[in-house]
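Question:
When you can, review this sequence-structure pair and walk me through the tokens.
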Amino acid sequence: MDKKQEFFDFIQKGNTFKGDYMTVGAAMLDGETMTNAHVKVPLKTLNRHGLIAGATGTGKTKTLQVLAENLSDKGIPVLLMDMKGDLSGIAKASPGHPKIDERHQKIGLPFTPKDFPVEILTLSEQEGVRLRATVSEFGPVLFSRILDATVAQSGIISILFKYSDDNKLPLLDLKDFKKILQYATNEGRDEIEKEYGRISSASSGSILRKIVELEQQGADIFFGEKSFDTDDLLRITNEGRGIINIIRLTDIQDRPALFSTFMLSLLSEIYTTFPEQGDSDQPELVIFIDEAHLIFKEASKALHSQIESIVKLIRSKGVGLYFVTQNPTDIPEGVLSQLGLKIQHALRAFTAKDRKAIKLTAENYPDSPYYDTKTVLTSLGIGEALVSALDEKGRPTPLAATMLRAPMSRMDILTQDELDTINAQSKMVKKYNEAIDRDSAYELLNEKIEKANQEEAKEKAKEERAKAERTSSRSRKSSGRSTQSATSKAIVKVLTSATVIRGVFGILGKLLK
């Protein structure tokens, strides 16, 4: 048996599954595509997470697009983080191209242009379904980690959440939390300290500065109502195709704190609300995070730890997370070790640091008798990648340099008119885009402070009246005593005057005669 046939059989054997799967391309040997030596990924292990990595321009985004399309056709909903704004074309069918036909002929798969059901979501004021969450939904622990709070600051945040719960003060947006923080260090200081403990002005000031920093990155738009229901990510069309939810993030690339906040909120909400799925035949939802390094960029150790924990646990909910980035080293080791599917596009070795990174990357893949992994990593062309998945028993499939299939949808962005049409037809836009600002902690505390001020003013006025009455009473008594004294003095003066004395003695003299 020659080497090619031996390799073909090796790939076929390692890609034979009992359950459903998706085909991502055909294996390559010595730079030649082996027609019909299909590289497959079983749906059963897609909740074990994955990585799509490679240098700029090697085809990562198109690989993401291919996976999303195939998942949708299998009835699995998808969530895409569109950092560059070039994924919306999934909503329209590919116009086709001779090079695509040539590629698919080599792979041994027919090429069928298709459009896919798409929902456009947004974190900012761009067009699409608005994504929001309330501060209360984060809870004190998660909110503290987002702010990178110290132990002392975290304690204060916990007190404020507890006070708000006990006094029925909803914390919906950041202005609510800022108000309760200011209240706790001013008007309500005595009340809160008596019941919950002392709050340091220095610590509360530091917390306030961190919230202002978060606001400057646009988080004030994200926090609020109406909260997005994560169950709406699981929608399937009447034809049984999974809806591809695309979050447009082109305007927050320079705001990593907002992106990390959103991702942590979303993953936490999914983990909290989704039921345990167990060992099912396919995932409930697959999430692709493009430019994944932004999640971890400038994030605190506490935030890293939280994301790491969720990545480890969320697969039991039937959710697969797929990180798309230029280099695997962009992902923390604790997360990287949890990934099952790895699709590695070409890496470039321009510096000694690059060569070291390639060596480390190669060591993360299974050994193959047919490849020198380090050499292959630098020689792959556009739309080619090393692929290693997990089979249905959780074992790595044979490592294969793969000619990847082309997207069935359009490989560019939608026009403004096309975006407007999708949003106009969306039921989700109507559900979530109405701004709601009901009475919450901000308004209720303002009312409480105003009422306290009014009561204080009434009490002060009452005291002033009482004081005035006491003063008036003392004045009247003093006036009475003064009048009486003056009369007495006048009588005495009259009685002691010389004329009266002479008169009295004159009368007495006459009587005695």
